[in-house]
User: What shape does this take?
Amino acid sequence: MQVQQLVGIVPWTFIAQLCNLFIQAFLIKKFLFKPVNEMLEKRRAKADAEIRDAEKAKTEAEAIKSEYEQNMQNARVEANELIASAKKTASAQSEEILKEAETQANAIRVKAEKDIEQEKKKAVSEIKDEIGEIAMEIAGKVIEREISEQDHEKLINDFISNVGETS
Assistant: This one.
């Protein structure tokens, strides 16, 4: 009877198994690792591209944000300048209107004073004319008759009352 060796190395079997192992490693490397590595590389490239795109979008967003903030600041400055300009214009216009109103008021006052002076001269002229007429009447009455002291006082009083009534 033959004793079978439980542990032993058969050289031809060992070489066949070794060749089998190299062939399997080559086939696994060729048909499994290479496509998997290519797929992983594509995923990595895609992820890197997405990260670059995201960073680019973030940079663009920050640029747009800073431009927006600058535009808002410029708009605030421009609005403040417009308000200041409007205030200056309104102030100048109000001063001009006040000066014009004052000039018109002075012109009206001067015209009123002239009108009053003319009316005064007219009234004085009319009074002089009336006094002259009354004096003529008195002179006519004096000439018609001789005047006594009482008549003279009566004529003077009549003259004064007539002058008082006409004025």
Notes: The chain has one domain: 13-166. The chain has two helices and no strands. The helical segments are 11-144, 149-166. The CA atoms of residues 34 and 148 lie 162 Å apart.
